[in-house]
Structure formats: structure tokens, C-alpha cells
Specification:
144 residues, alpha+beta, Tetrahydropterin Synthase, Chain A, 31% helix
Length: 144
């Protein structure tokens, strides 16, 4: 069965703060610089999600695009747009993961993968690219 990959891009705006509650303000500042400031800062994120799988013999698709769009709207856009990442996702709450691009790509890959796996699609998440701006992004890949 032929295989292929499909990439869909979504955008959202969100704020975040890098902070370890068990560290002093000085330790946080030393580790995270300006990202440790008490006031969160924001980005206009661009998120590219790559799904891969067998081409459906009847439709020629890896995944139903309508399904993928609904999942990305639910798991990424509506979940994060206009929100503080530290509060919007349980993984980033106080004492959890730091909401870096790298961590966000990982968390989104897990969330989208779980939602995709709950449906009738045989496609899986192959990569998630999260960009804070034109000069900084992270990529999670299934083989990383």
C-alpha cells in the first residue's frame, strides 16, 4: 500500500512564561532570562502538523481532511488561541513542563495523536513544528 504524508498549518496567538516554582527568582532569571519575567509574553505561533499513513485506495487520502481540520481546531486553535499556555494545558501548569517551543511541539503531538487515534483513521502524527516567530521554531518527529 502506498504511503504519504500530509501537512496542515494552523495559527494561534498565546502567551507564556518560563518559571520553575521551586527555584528562586535569581535561578529562574539565570536559566530563562527575560522569559522568566513575572509578566508573560506572547507570540503569534505557526504550527505545522504532519500526518502520515497509507493512501486510501478509494479517496487517495492519508486522512480525511475535514477530520484533521476539526482535530486541529479543537486540540490547537480553540485550546490555545488567546490563552496563557501555562494555564491552558495541564502539562505546563506550575511545577510541570516549561512551555518552550520544544515542549509545546511534544505536547501537541501527543494530544493530536491521541485524538487522531480515537477516530477511524489509520494515519498517525509524524511531525509537529511549532514556530514562535520567523527565526525560532522546534520540530518534534515520531522518530526523534
Amino acid at each position: 500500500m502506498p504511503r504519504a504524508a500530509l501537512v496542515r498549518r494552523v495559527r494561534f496567538s498565546a502567551t507564556h512564561r518560563y518559571h520553575r516554582p521551586e527555584w528562586t527568582d535569581e535561578e529562574n532569571l539565570a536559566a530563562f532570562g527575560a522569559c522568566a519575567a513575572a509578566e508573560p509574553h506572547g507570540h503569534d505561533y505557526v504550527c505545522d502538523v504532519t500526518v502520515a499513513g497509507d493512501l486510501d485506495a478509494k479517496t487517495g487520502m492519508v486522512v480525511d481532511l475535514g477530520l484533521l481540520d476539526r482535530l486541529l481546531d479543537e486540540q490547537v486553535v480553540r485550546a490555545l488561541d488567546g490563552k496563557l499556555l501555562n494555564d491552558a494545558l495541564p502539562e505546563f501548569r506550575s511545577g510541570g513542563m516549561i512551555p518552550t517551543c520544544e515542549s509545546l511541539a511534544l505536547v501537541l503531538a501527543r494530544r493530536i495523536g491521541a485524538a487522531l487515534g480515537a477516530g477511524d483513521s489509520s494515519a498517525c502524527v509524524h511531525a509537529v513544528r511549532v514556530a514562535e516567530d520567523e527565526s525560532l521554531w522546534a520540530v518534534w518527529t515520531a522518530d526523534a
